[in-house]
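New to this. Comment on this protein:
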Amino acid sequence: MLRRVLAVAGLTTLLVGAGVAQEAESGLSMPVTASFGAMDTHRFNLFSPTASPSVANFRLMFYPTLRLGKHWFAYAAIQVRRIPYFYYDAYLPDRDVETDLVQGYVGYTMHSGPATIVFKAGQMVTAFGSFPLRYDDAQNSLMDQPLAYITEVPLRTGQLACGTSDLLKQHYGSVAANCGGEVGRGPGLTPVTLYGLPAAQAEISVRRFDARVQMTTSSPANPEGWAMSRQYLQWAAGGGVTIQQGFRVGVSGFRGPYLESSIAPWLPTGTSVRSFPASARGLDAQWARGRLSANGELQEFRFDAPNYVVPPRIVTGYAELKARVTPRIFAAAREGFLKTESVLDSKGVSAAEFAATLHSTEVGLGFWLHPHVLAKVSYEFMHAAGSTGSRTNVVGMQLVATFNQLQQAFSH
């Protein structure tokens, strides 16, 4: 039902907005970010021992924006990339060109005194966390993404683990639990997606304060598109305060069902998918002064599931520092971790953690060859507790160009 409401709201927005368009405030633009990337890593050999460790590919981001008068607008973010492009793609066997609608929504902006209020409906990145809004290669100082947004943890949305012993047999990116649901091994869930969800959102900013509330039809830990029959209304929210110029602190959270509806026959009597939500809470901060800037996040995720008294939980975070060496050169570094917490099943079996702790360190340099052309190089150290060697490390480069040539104002 919600997806129909959102679709009707979107169409209504465009039709009404077209009727109130004003000359100086109506127009179309489409910024584009075009990136060429190359990397060298032995991650490719995890699936194919004979695969070349080097690959080069591309990514295009299109941002069509339509403004209709003072209040109404429509926006989209469309990604076209050849896989493997990102560092984490090197863990996957896919080799193809993919097109994704990351965002696509209509909105209405209004002002009331010092407050700015925005309503949106369509497909949007989650309101949880801060990194999803820095997903563009020109805005990401490095080349990889924080672990919470890319790691396939040892949990499935379409399978049930029998308990702690079953959970300890799983691996990052490969899960095969035994107490119901899908058969066979498959990828685990990612704690929070970088891609869009069908949603409605309200935002407000008043002086130093900002807040956003989002209603979605699926979990950021298990995003589903408009065509999926399973739709569970849930929420995500965030907000922050700018303590002083250049220093902001924010919080965010989400909660709602994350298991597939196909799992229902294996759930305990009297329960449903709604009885076992995924929930998260996060803290983020951004700081900048002079040539230095920093940002970071600390997040905790909980995935309620049958057969557990203390369910699987994950704590993850990162800190990123950027230093402008010269007007055209900058250096950046990001240190991140992902740690699983203790679990206790209904049979009394416990474990201090259910998977190895991950650590990642990425260091890089950026060179502005032109105000709209950025070259980046970086090296990432990836380490799982108990493992040795450098086979999962990555060295890479990117050439990123931004264009905003298509800008057309029009009158009614």
The chain has one domain: 2-409. The domain at 2-409 is CATH 2.40.160.10 (Porin).
